[in-house]
Each structure stands twice: as C-alpha cells, then as structure tokens.
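[#protein-structures] MJ: dropping Dihydrolipoamide dehydrogenase here for a structure pass
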Amino acid sequence: MTDNTYDVIVIGGGAVGEVLAERVVKRGLSAAIVEDALLGGECSYWACMPSKALLRSGEALRAAKTVKGAAEAVTGSLDVQAVLERRNSFTSGWDDSGQVKWAEGAGITVVRGRARIDGPRRVVVRQSDGAGEQVLEARHAVAACVGSAARIPPVPGLREAGPWTSREATSAKEAPRRLAILGAGPVGCEMAQAWSDLGSEVTLIEMRDRLLSALEPFVGKYVAKSLTEAGVTVRTGTTVQSVTKEGDGPIHIATNLGEVVADVVLCACGREPQTQDLGLETIGLEPGSWLDVDDSLRVNGVEGGWLYSAGDANHRALFTHQGKYQARIAGDAIAARARGEHAAPVAWSPFAATADHQALPAVVFTDPEVAIVGLTEQRAREQGMTVKVAEYEIGNVAGASLRADGYTGHAKIVVDQERLVIVGFTAIGPGVGEILQAATVAIVGEVPLDRLWHAVPAYPTMNEVWLRLLETYGL
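AK: finished. structure tokens for Dihydrolipoamide dehydrogenase:
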C-alpha cells in the first residue's frame, strides 16, 4: 500500500459506508472512506436519529395519558425547547468529531472531500479545504455508498418557495406556525406527527386516496384517524398545481381541492440517487442513475467487477438497517474475492443480500406505530402466490390492554398456502415495533405454521397476538 493506494475505497461516509469500510478492515484489507460532509451521514444527523428523537417525547406523553393513575400525574404539555435540545444531543450538535475518532480507531483512513470515479479503480477527491485534488487508487474495489437525496417534484414555483426537505424538517430550530407537507409516505406522516406535537398547524397533502399507500389499506386509515384527532388536517386525493411565495410573505399552495396557506412547505415526495457527479460516465454508466447491482452488491455492467454499491444508491431497499445489511454482505464478498476465493451470491449465503427480496422489515414511528415485514396481501398475489390471510384486533390481547387503557391496534399475516409459511406481516398500534423481529425471523426462516404453533408467547405480553393470529388462521 502507498499513501494513495488502498485495497478498498468507500465513497460516502454515512452509516452504510462506515459499516462496509469497517467490515473489510476486520477481514484484513485496508480501506479509505471519502466524505465531503459529516461522517455518519444522513441517518446520524438528518434522518433516523433526529427524527425519532423529535417523535419520542410526544409519544411518551400520550402513553402516560393512556394509563389511569399515570394520566392524573400529567399536568403540563411538551417543553418544545427541551425536545429540540434532546434531539440535538443525538446529533452531537452536528459535530462528527466522535465519528472520525471511531473510524480512525477502527483502522479506516478518512479522506475529506468530494469524490468522483475517474476510470477503473481510480477515485479523484476534490479536497474540502480547497487544497486541490487527491488521486486514490483501489487494489480490489470501490464501493459507492453515496445514498439518496430528497426529490423535489417539478411543481411550478415550488423550488422558488424554498421548501424544506427531510434535512430541514429534522434539524429546524423552531416549530413553524403553519406547515404544509407534500407526500404522506413514512417521512411525511412522521413529520406531521412530530411537528404537530411541537405546536405547528400541519396540513398533510397526499395525491393518492390514502396515507402510506404502499402498505396494507387498514394502516392508512388508522394513521389518518390518529393524525386528524391530533389536529393535523389530512387531505388525500389532492394534487398540487402550483406554489407561490412573494418576499417574506406566506406560501400559497394551489391544489385541485382549493388553496392551502403555509409558512413552510416540506417536500416528502420520494428520493433520487446522488450519483449525478460521481463520474459514472467514465466507466460507461449513466450519470444520475440508480446503480443496478447483483445480490453481492457488485454493480452490473462494469468491466472487471470492481465497483460495488450498498445502501440507497442501488434502490433495492431505502432503509438504513437494510443498507448496513448490504454493507456487511458486500464487505464479505469483497474480502473473499480479494483472497481469490469463490463468492457466488447464492440465496442465503454470506455473499447474497437475500433479505432485500423477501424480508424487508420497517417501522413507521407515527402514533400509533406501524410495523411491517415481507409482502402485503396484494403484492403476494401479484407474485402469483395463493394466499390466505388472518387478522386480529391487538387490543383484545391481554398484554396490549395492560399497556394502555383502550388500546387500539390491528395485525395481519399473509400465508403462502403452498408452502404454509408466513410471507408478510403488518401491525399497527402502540409499541408494535417491538414485536416485529419475531415476524422477521418467521419469514426469513420460512418457519412452517405447524412448527410456529409451538413458539409459545409469554403471557401477558403483546406477543400473544401471534397465538391469536394462528388461531384465526385455523390452527
């Protein structure tokens, strides 16, 4: 190794890039990680951690109010400044010095600057301090872990209005008086919950006929009801036609169902890859495109097979936990191939991100919480499966009724009738994220229902919903 040559060069120092770099170092390779912003990336500073910190205080307050005895002790409301200060603590005040110390302690070289690929295994870094460019060479692999950015739809006047994206929504220093949110996916619904809790008048605008439209239909109904009861104005079937803002005045949002006036507009309209300036054209790929990868996360169409991509940029699963899973797979594959070993990405091997296809777990941290893994009923049928579903009201489970007076929630399993295994699980209700791993294990392990019947849930816990679902199914 020379000063500018490493076994692996990782472009992008978010959580995914950090995991991949650490993985290859642990397997005996050298690694450099190139980052032009904060090491730790989106998840640490503008997504998972600050957003969940914003949501937690309101959730805790409501939870106390749902238990008689505790409810009588609640005499005040949220301290907004304290909530924001707690959020700041999880981002270390947007200071990444702790992350840099960790990386260097793990044996990873941190290079500050904006990286672009310049031909096979060659990376040019425009240094952050303006000192010029540095050329890095990779012996074995380059990994593009550059993530994604918020998509701003081409609505007339929207960009000119200076919209928030998820970054501004999770790092704002005060609550806007009137907040309009465009898009009711997980980000839109979570931010509607958070900023409503913190005192904003929130209008949630969704062009489809329900919230969280990619999930089971009952989920959107529950979340819409909860947000409405919390004071959020929920507008579905609403198309934004134009946005107008003059000077320091309010923002006027014209829709097919009338005008919405706000002080801040948040775009939660999906994501796009951050590959526009990555230098893909130097290796025959399309700039700005999602990176198509095989199950070992090696980018297809690159001669020599030296380019990998884990995380959002490959568009397989836009979740931090799934990107870190991919990073572990890619790291193992890179290390094995560097040793001259065969690393075929066959299903369920150490070199295949199999879970990307069948077992994506996720939690939407609204109140009530949403927990999902695997396929919805509709997607299972679209894949040609013959399925049977079972549903159960979680509030009828003893553990749930103990958790909150008047607990309301719902759970559903989707069963492949040919193999008699669960292929999908969805639940909504306070705390359901804590029972999600059982569903994930059942799906990943393809546990037969007659075997799952013997996984006895402890009483009285919310896990008893598993027994009730199996009984409803017919076991």
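MJ: nice. The chain has a mean pLDDT of 96.
AK: one more thing. The first strand starts at residue 5 and ends at 11.
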